[in-house]
Amino acid sequence: MFSPGQSQIRHPKFRLYETKMLSDCSILVGREKKEFVTGHKAILSAASPILHDMFIATEGVTKFIINDIEPEIFISMLKFIYTDSLDVNCDSVYDVVAVAKNYQMPYVMKACFQYIGDNLSIKNVLQAYSLALCSSESDVLKKKCEEFINKDTIAVLNNASFLKTNLDVVVAVFSLDSLNIENELVLWYAADRYADYRSKRGETLAVYKILQKIRFLSLTIKDFLKGLADTTVLPASEACAILINMTEDKSKVSMPSGYSKEIQGRNPRKESEIGIKQTKNDLAIVPSEIKFKLRVPNIEDFTKIKNACYKSSMFQLQNLKWCAEAKIGTILADSKKYLQLYVHRCKNESNKTSCNAEIEFLLLRNFDYLEPSRYKFTKVFEQNQSWGINRFIAVSDLLNPNNHYITDGTITVQIHIKTDKPLEPSVFANNVIAFRE
């Protein structure tokens, strides 16, 4: 029995529920299995607008029939109305939710959502997530389900309940950003099993909705070819287009319509976490290259802020800490505002080596046929030093809707950094910001 937030003192209506004292109505509940349930019109009317309307429409009547609810479900709901105690299990609670929704009792639904969220398991989390996605009042349950799925992704996808889950729920799962998977092959194989199971049941499945959420471009070519060999769910035409986009930086073949263009996985290990595990003698095995996307939200407001600066999370290359920055600055020579992009090597007193790095900035557009704006350069970075470009694009051009740089108020800059093995400290090392005029 579940009692959300109630004290140890019995609810004032508890005695009325137990003794049926002063009850003034009798309700025959059920379809095939029927049962009489007694109650109090005033209490039931206050609990549900639907029951209130039923009593008002039949004033003077004391016997009623409700044939769209099974007796045990109605009794569970009735008990909560009187006592605030939810007498359910992990199966019946969903029926109580359905009845509470039909009879407009949001407080009962809220208690059910709390019970479901407190009793999540590998077997039922997708059913709970399906319920949460369908209700506007279940944000807490939705968050709990997503946290559970993110933590135990493999177990959830391998459970038999996954194959029986509605397509929209599978799409929602595949859309989550922090799934605990090694790479996108896990989702690819899961999609293949799901499509095969539904096909054998004679169901027509819009499998492309799932495939569009898989981040194929984050896979290595070797893993992508392995996925092609092991599965049948990805059509040949889409596979060819994806493979071309994986092998050509300036591909003239667009990604299949609606497919993800993300180049990072769901739960990527942060370069900083990898680097911290290495010693100074292990520089050769520390990551030397990274490609990621820096998204600047609310770009119109951002351009109006004085000295606006948007930084990426810190990452680690060659055992050195780095970050990327997007700024808005005015160039005095022409009095124009520009988007400025920099890569910054952070200060580290214990490691004063210099490092040669090749940097490429790509300001992405909304359509594949439009070339992104780009700037590429190579510089030697000392500690606490930034290199970049202070006239990447004029703010007026950036905000021009005809240039298609903005999506939902956000711009996306793809940053690709390749670093060489660190060099000995330079006698010229200082805090410098370099510009391209």
Which keywords apply here?
single chain, 437 residues, alpha+beta, Potassium Channel Kv1.1, Chain A, Apoptosis, Tumor Necrosis Factor Receptor Associated Protein 2, Chain A, 3 domains, six-stranded mixed β-sheet, four-stranded antiparallel β-sheet, elongated, disordered C terminus, BACK, SKP1/BTB/POZ_sf
Shape field: elongated
Count up the domains: 3
Q: Poorly predicted ranges (pLDDT <50, ≥5 residues)?
A: 5-9, 268-285, 427-437
How many strands? Answer: 13
Distance between the termini: 71 Å
Helical residue percent band: 25-40%
CATH superfamily of the largest domain: Apoptosis, Tumor Necrosis Factor Receptor Associated Protein 2, Chain A
Roughly how many Å is the radius of gyration?
A: 30 Å
**CATH third-tier fold name of the largest domain:** Apoptosis, Tumor Necrosis Factor Receptor Associated Protein 2, Chain A
* Distinct helical segment count: 18
In CATH, the architecture of the largest domain is Sandwich
* Largest sheet, strands/sense/barrel: 6 strands, mixed
Task: Please identify the top-level CATH class of the largest domain.
Answer: Mainly Beta
* Mean pLDDT over the residues: 84
